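Following up on my earlier thread - several people asked me to post the actual chain instead of describing it. Fair enough. Here it is, all 95 residues.
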Amino acid sequence: MLSYYTPVVLAGHTIMLEPLTLDHAPDLLQALNNDEEIWRYIPVEQPKTLDDMRGWIATALEEQAQGQRLPFAVIYNASHRASFPPPPWPRPATL
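Reply from S.P.:
Thanks for posting it. Predicted structure:
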């Protein structure tokens, strides 16, 4: 029986979803790059430092242990690095 405690990897042609770990923190912080648009709909303060990102991940892992969340990292197959998925809409051009 699957539960929030059973790790699973979901693999596709372009990305894979793997269980989120603290090891993903550096890649996720770099991918975030202080881009407020990526974080806009996440109801917690945007991580600004590696410790902040680790804290955000630690909270997600605590909630997983409580059966409240199943956090995954998005891994791009081409780079083998964790990232945030691109928005499904085109970004506005900058002037």
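The two ends are 53 Å apart (CA to CA). That should answer part of your original question.
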